């Protein structure tokens, strides 16, 4: 069951985009699938899937982003830096627990290290796994609350000096969220809403499950439904939920789109200049990693070359859902994709969404 929704009036050529979305959607098997494209602010959305459509249209449901939540945390940090409330070079332990005795390597970990996966911390705390393994397929994170994440950080013994190696870490980004909350005296969820969600007009984006029927239901590979994700103390690394239309709004902001709160798009953009500075900052290439340093990253986005200019993207997966966010700054293209099926090795979801981002001018 599929349909194509022209969310705004489309110029000539947009029907070709709709046909392309319908074509590539066949490669992804999921109960619910949404492929959403914005070209210079003009949107085309394809919805489909093997499941029943349900009372709420697929593009209006909220989907779990998993690790694709990290760009939201990155933008939050960048805006707080632009406001002068924190600095990228601030040491996390000093903000999180002033005076607490920590390992010398931990003492050197900065906010930038935490966000860019260069802190030397592992992907998850060592003591996370004993409590998670018995419920790995149902609720691995819910039993590991925020205070435990903080304690694990303050007691950590990193294997590598900060800034010397890149290692993807949900642990580190979660610590960043708790550190920003401590530094500002504001809970992370409130801080995210005040600094990112509300200013960008992301009214259908949140970090907790919504009212009954508002959220998409995830599924395992065998089709069994999965309970809503509880991220425990790892909210900053993976708790965001959003509709595909809100995802496009978030991406369009990175492309210089108008302020969604502005009633007259012909007026100069009244958006707070610190938000504009933050959006610019998170798109700037920052570090290189991998063999021969072939892979480039910004503060929060993976950054690849393409024939049409650089592409910036991030994917995420939870126990039963997947998400992909990406954009091409040089050509005003944004792609948001969601699916309600658990990722596995032969999965085509990310490759399909990435292909939409890189295949056409």
Basic shape: globular
Task: Enumerate how many helices there are, as a single number.
Answer: 13
Radius of gyration computed on alpha carbons: 20 Å
Measure the end-to-end span: 29 Å
**Percentage of residues in strands:** 15-25%
Q: What share of the residues lie within helices?
A: 25-40%
Spatial order of strands in the largest sheet: 1-3-2-14-13-12-11-10-9
Low-confidence stretches: 1-13
Mean pLDDT across the residues is 91
E-strand count: 14
Q: Give the topology string: H per helix, E per strand.
A: EHEEEHHHHHHHHEEEHEHHEEEEEEH
Largest sheet: 9 strands, antiparallel
Describe the structure.
There is one protein chain. The chain is of the alpha+beta class and 361 residues long. The protein is 31% helix and 16% strand. The chain contains 13 helices and 14 strands. The chain has helices at 14-25, 70-82, 92-96, 104-107, 111-115, 128-132, 146-154, 170-184, 188-197, 235-238, 244-254, 273-281, 349-358; strands at residues 3-6, 33-39, 42-48, 63-64, 205-206, 218-219, 225-226, 241-242, 287-289, 295-297, 302-304, 311-317, 322-328, 333-339. A hairpin with a 2-residue loop joins strand 2 (33-39) and strand 3. Helix 2 (70-82) packs across helix 12.
Summarize the structure.
The protein is of the alpha+beta class and 361 residues long. 31% of the residues lie in helices and 16% in strands.
């Amino acid at each position: 069951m599929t349909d194509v929704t022209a969310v705004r009036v489309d110029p000539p050529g947009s029907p070709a985009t709709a046909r392309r979305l319908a074509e590539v959607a066949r490669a992804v098997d999921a109960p619910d699938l949404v492929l959403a494209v914005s070209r210079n602010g003009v949107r085309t959305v394809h919805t489909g899937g093997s499941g029943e459509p349900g009372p709420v249209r697929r593009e209006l449901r909220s989907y779990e982003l998993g690790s694709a939540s990290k760009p939201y945390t990155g933008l939050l940090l960048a805006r707080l830096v632009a406001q002068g409330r924190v600095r990228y070079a601030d040491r996390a332990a000093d903000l999180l627990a002033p005076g607490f005795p920590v390992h010398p390597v931990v003492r050197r970990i900065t906010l930038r290290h935490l966000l860019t996966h260069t802190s030397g911390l592992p992907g998850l705390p060592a003591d996370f796994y004993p409590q998670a393994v018995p419920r790995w397929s149902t609720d691995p994170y819910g039993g590991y609350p925020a205070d435990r994440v903080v304690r694990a950080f303050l007691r950590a013994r990193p294997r590598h000096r900060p800034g010397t190696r890149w290692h993807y870490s949900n642990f580190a980004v979660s610590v960043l969220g708790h550190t920003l909350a401590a530094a500002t005296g504001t809970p992370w969820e409130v801080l995210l809403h005040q600094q990112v969600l509300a200013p960008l007009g992301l009214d259908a984006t949140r970090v907790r499950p919504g009212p009954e029927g508002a959220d998409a239901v995830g599924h395992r590979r065998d089709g069994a439904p999965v309970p809503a994700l509880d991220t425990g103390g790892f909210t900053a690394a993976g708790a965001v939920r959003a509709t595909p239309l809100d995802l496009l709004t978030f991406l369009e902001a990175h492309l210089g789109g108008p302020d969604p709160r502005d009633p007259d798009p012909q007026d100069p953009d009244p958006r707070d200049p610190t938000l504009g500075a933050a959006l610019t900052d998170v798109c700037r290439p920052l570090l290189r990693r991998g063999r021969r340093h072939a892979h480039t990253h910004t503060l929060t986005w993976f950054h690849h070359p393409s024939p049409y200019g650089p592409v910036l993207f991030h994917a995420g997966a939870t126990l039963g859902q997947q998400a992909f966010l990406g954009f091409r700054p040089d050509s005003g293209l944004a792609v948001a994709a969601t699916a309600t099926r658990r990722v596995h090795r032969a999965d085509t979801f990310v490759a399909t969404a990435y292909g939409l981002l890189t295949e056409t001018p």
